[in-house]
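Researcher: We're teaching a course module on how sequence relates to structure. For the next exercise, students receive a sequence and then see the predicted structure as C-alpha cells, so they can try to spot secondary structure elements on their own. Here is the exercise chain.
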Amino acid sequence: MFRRVLAALLIVALAAALLVAGWPQLLGLQWQLGVAQVVSLRALAGGLSAVLAVVLLLIALASRRARRLTASLAVALLLFTGLSAAVLATRGWGSEHFAAKGEQGVTVLSWNTLGDAPGAERIARLALDDGADIVVLPETSVELAQQIADRMGAEGRTMAVHNITFDKIAKARTTSLLISSTLGRYQPDTSAGSTRVIPSGVWRPVDGSGPAIVAAHPVAPVPGEMPAWREGLEWLAARCTEPDLIMAGDFNSTIDHWSALARSGELGDCHDGAKAMGDAAIGSWPTRIPAELGAPIDHVLSGSDWRFTGFRVIRDQDGAGSDHRPVLAQLERVS
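Model: And here is the predicted structure for the students to work with:
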C-alpha cells in the first residue's frame, strides 16, 4: 500500500513539474528561477523528455514489477514532449524566405559578439553581404564597432557608430550600434534610461524622420540577477509603446517570458520578427548545440508602422567565437 501511495505521489509530482515546465504562463511562473531557464530551452527539454520516456518504456517491458510506475512516468514525459512540440510548431522551425527589399526597406543584423570574439573583418563582411542598415552588437567594444564601421565605409557603406557603456571592466558592459547614413543622423535618447547591469539604449533621428532604434541587452536570468532580468524585460516592454520603432539585440528571453508583458504584440505593442516569419522555434544560443534545440533569445522586434518581410537565424557563423548566432531581419514600412 505504501509503495502504491509513493508511486502515485511520484507520478503526480512529475506531471506537475512537467506542466510548469511546458506551460509556466498558466501559473505565472515563467519569471521564476529554474522555470525561466527550462522554458528557454523548450526544444532541448522536449527532446530529453522523449529519450527518457523511451528508456522508461523499455524498463516497463522488461520488468513486470515496475511496469505500472515506469509506464505512467513515460506517458507523462511523452505528453510533455507533445506539448513542447505543439508550441514550437506554432512558432515555426525555419522559414528563411526574404521578399525583395523595397525602397523603404530596412535590414537589421544583431549579433552578441561575446566580447569582440568574431573580429571586425568577419562582422563587417556579414553586414555588407546582407546589406544591413542597422547593426546591433551587444557585448561589443567601442573600438571594435569603429573598426567594423571603417571596413564597411571602405566598401561604400557609411555607418555611424553609437554605443552605451557602463564601464570598462568587461566588454559585456558595452552595447554598440551601427546605423547606415541612408537612415539619417541619430542621437541617443538619454531620457529613456537603460536596463540594469548590462546596458541597452534608445536612439532617435535628429530630424524626427525615421524609426526610433532600441539596442537591447537585459542581463541574463542567472541566480542573483533575477530581479534585474525581470526589470530589464519590463524596461523593454515600456519602450514598445510607439509604432515607429525597431528593437533588436540579445533579449536573454524567449516569447514565453513575455506573456505577462504582451499587449497588442508579443512584447508590449512590439511584434517579434521570428514569430511573424515562422522562425521562432530556431535557437540563437548556444552555438555548441544545434539551432533546432537551442534557445531563441536574440530577437528583432518592431512597432506597428513596420511589417517583417524576412527573418533568419544565421547558422554558418557557429565557429566564429561567439556563443550566439547572429539574427537577420528585413522590414518594410506599412504606410
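Model: If you want an answer key for the exercise: The two ends are 70 Å apart (CA to CA). The chain has two domains: 2-91, 106-333.
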